[in-house]
Amino acid sequence: MIREDILAKEFIRVVGKYYPKIGELLDGCHVKVITNYWGRPPKRLRYIGIYCSDEMMPHVQVHKEVLRELADNMGLVQVVFLNASRLLRDPMSKIKQADPRLWLDLHWVAT
What we know:
The chain is α+β, with helices and mostly antiparallel strands. The protein is built from seven helices and three strands; from the N terminus they run H-H-E-E-H-H-E-H-H-H.
């Protein structure tokens, strides 16, 4: 089984190889594979989470169909776009306690 971080790096590599302009956009974002369990019995679902700043979000979302097609070809369920700036400002967010490294990466993306 492939780990989430390796799968995210492979996704970035494939995007950069076949779609270099989109790959340049993803350089300013944080890409992470998110695993979720849903249903009875629980079925594991993996999807790509792309964390972008307010300024980058519209430029990346223009290419959502291409990114979703690539994710589907890699066996991932979906691609979701998350606003890093909003997550950092959210007072109810537990990202800092749950995943400090992601929290620091989101600060880098938001600036």
